[in-house]
Amino acid sequence: MAIERTLSILKPDALQWRAVGKILARLEEAGLKPVAMKMLQLSQKQAEGFYAVHRERPFFKSLVAYMSSGPVIVQVLEGENAVAKNREVMGATDPAKAAEGTIRKLFARSIEANSVHGSDSPENARTEIAYFFAQTELVAYDWTAKR
Ligand code: ADP
Ligand code: MG
């Protein structure tokens, strides 16, 4: 299976209710290796640009307001089948429909404030990574060390 990269975002609700550590632990335990990470306060324009594919949806305005309502953590995760793996660990968009044990089932508050974003295809992952990171901000390191 191919090593892929995917864009992950911890959304404002995850920071506001102190779920950051727990969410990062779940992603790490799933074998998704962080190779870039930063905390940002998105402007309305940045949030609109990121979610441009959804601009015709009825929830677009509200989504943009929510995503720029507080800081987020954006990160690049790397691993085998990383795009699908991340989506699996995240769970369905609507926490009410998300499988047991998924991040959204455990931590999301609503279909909008659903704690995490994950790219939905390798191609979109490349575009989304480039939206937030320069190539020089992606690092390489060994994470197989034993204590
Ligand atoms: P996903 O994040 O699971 O890929 P989508 O790409 O369909 O889901 O939607 C992007 C984001 O828009 C969702 O994560 C969620 O924050 C918000 N959203 C999706 N559907 C709705 C909805 N019906 N009402 C409000 N917000 C929504
Ligand atoms: Mg999506």
Can you describe this structure?
With 147 residues, the protein is an alpha+beta fold. The chain contains seven helices and four strands, in the order E-H-H-E-H-H-E-H-H-E-H. The chain has helices spanning 12-16, 20-29, 44-50, 60-67, 82-90, 103-107, 122-132; strands at 3-10, 33-40, 72-80, 116-118. The chain is globular. The model has no long low-confidence stretch (mean pLDDT 98).
Describe the secondary structure blueprint for this structure.
Elements: E1 3-10, H1 12-16, H2 20-29, E2 33-40, H3 44-50, H4 60-67, E3 72-80, H5 82-90, H6 103-107, E4 116-118, H7 122-132
Antiparallel strand pairs: 1-3, 1-4, 2-3
Adenosine-5'-diphosphate binds at residues 54, 59, 63, 93, 111-112, 114, 117, 120.
Structural key phrases:
binds adenosine-5'-diphosphate; 4-stranded antiparallel sheet; 147 residues; 19% strand; binds magnesium ion; alpha+beta
Mean pLDDT over the full residue set = 98
Percent of residues in beta strands: 15-25%
Q: Tell me about the largest β-sheet.
A: 4 strands, antiparallel
Parts with pLDDT < 50 across at least 5 consecutive residues: none
Please tell me what the overall shape is. globular
Distance between the termini: 28 Å
